[in-house]
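Handover notes (outgoing to incoming on-call)

Open items:
1. VOC family protein: sequence verified, structure written out, both below. Nothing else pending on this one.
2. Nothing else urgent.
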Amino acid sequence: MSTSPEQQTPGSRPNPTVFATLQARDAPALIDFYVRAFGFELTARYDDGDLVAHAQLNWPEGHGAVMLGSHSPDKEWSPEPGTSSGYVVTAHPELVAERIAAAIPELGGEIVRPLADTDYGGREIMVRDPEGNLWSFGDYPGA
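VOC family protein structure tokens:
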């Protein structure tokens, strides 16, 4: 799926101003995982042949987003796949955890730490995506 820049703004929500960025060995599969397992919304994707040149996935509960593309080891800005991590704030950690648990058997990945209360007052689940990146989803909104 490719979208034009005019299609990137979902509703009246402002565009994110901070992005997590990462590279993937199989970017189409990782995009599918993020959409189906985590609930991110694919808002833009630009392909270059069989490679994903750029994709943007917005988090529907806020203003954060992920930018990702196919790994390009010849580029200085292309980090090694599987070396990133992120924390995503959700008002619904139970629903996110249920969605992840239901998707992982089909899509891959691993629940590293099941949904549990944290020492700092949040409720959180930690997941390793199929490429090895670590993601936490919780209701701790930060300070």
